[in-house]
Amino acid sequence: MPKVAVIGSGNVGAAAGMWIAGFGIADVALIDKNEGLAKGKAMDISDSLYILGSNKKVAGGGFDLAQGSDIVVITAGMARKPGMTREDLLIVNGQIVKSVLNSLPGDLNDPVFICVTNPLDIMTTLIHKIMNIPENRLVGMGVNLDTSRMANIASEESDMARIAFSPMVLGAHGKEMLPLEDSLTVKGMDILSNEQKKNIARRTSKRGAEIVEAFGSGSAYVAPGAAIYQIVKAIILDEGAILPLSVITRRLGIENAGAIGLPVKVGRNGCFAVNIDNLPGEVLEKIKKISVEIGEMADKLISDI
What we know:
Layout: E1 3-7, H1 11-22, E2 27-31, H2 35-52, E3 58-61, E4 71-74, H3 90-103, E5 112-115, H4 120-131, E6 138-140, H5 143-158, E7 169-171, E8 177-179, H6 194-215, H7 222-236, E9 241-247, E10 260-267, E11 270-273, H8 281-304
Parallel strand pairs: 1-2, 1-4, 2-3, 4-5, 5-6
Antiparallel strand pairs: 7-8, 9-10, 10-11
Helix pairs in contact: 1-2, 1-7, 3-4, 4-8, 5-6
C-alpha cells in the first residue's frame, strides 16, 4: 500500500493530505513538531473520507510516522507575509529544513522527496547537498503550480477553458520564473495576441504575491496542495507524465548546478529531466545562469545554518 509522509501540517501540508487521501491515491502520514496539530488535522481529513468514497488512512503525529514511506513531502517552514519575497525566508527555512532532515527515521522506503518549502529551488538544492539524494529521487514543487496559474489566467484573459491551454513555466519558483509565452497555444493553434501573451506571463509571475497581499496574512495553500497531489499521483500511478518541476540535473552541463524548473518525466522509478536541447536558446541560457546562482546560494546557506 503506497504511503506518503507529509512533513508540516500547516495549510499546505493539510491540503496536500486532503487531495492525496481524498482521491484515494495513498495512505498519508501528517507529521509536525506540534504533534497535536498533526493529529487534529489527520482526524479532520479522515472524517471526510467516507463522504468522498475513499478508504485510505490518514494518521497524524511525530516523525516516527514517516517509517516505510514511499514519498516524503517537505512543506515545513514559515509562510510569506505581505511585502516578503521567498528569498527573505532563506535562513529561517533553511534551519527548519535541516532540522526536518535530521529528524527523519532511518527506515524509509527509498522514497522520492518532494520539496515545497520556500525559497523552493534553494531548499531543494539544500536537501540534495545535505542528504546526497540521487537526482531522480528529489524534486521541488513549484513551477507546476505556476503553470496551473498560467492556464487559469489565460482562461480569464481569453474566456476559453483552462484545459484548452498547454502552458509551461520553467526556471525558478519566484521572481526568476520563466513563463513561456510561446506555449500559450490552443490545440496547437496560436490564437492569442502577443499583447495577451505578455500580459498573461506578467500576471503569472506576480500571482503568488498577489494572493499573499489579498490574504493579508498567510499564503496560497489549496492550489499548492493540488500541485503536490499532481506529482504524487504521477509517481504512484507510474504515469510517465511530463511536468515542470525543480530538479538537480547534469543535463545543464554545469558543475554544482542548483535545482531549477525544467520539463521532467515522472513515474514510479522517480523523476528524470527530459531533453532540453529544443528549448529556445535565450531561455536555456537564463536557466543555466539561474541554476548557477541557486547552487552558490545553497552553498552559502549551508555555512550559515
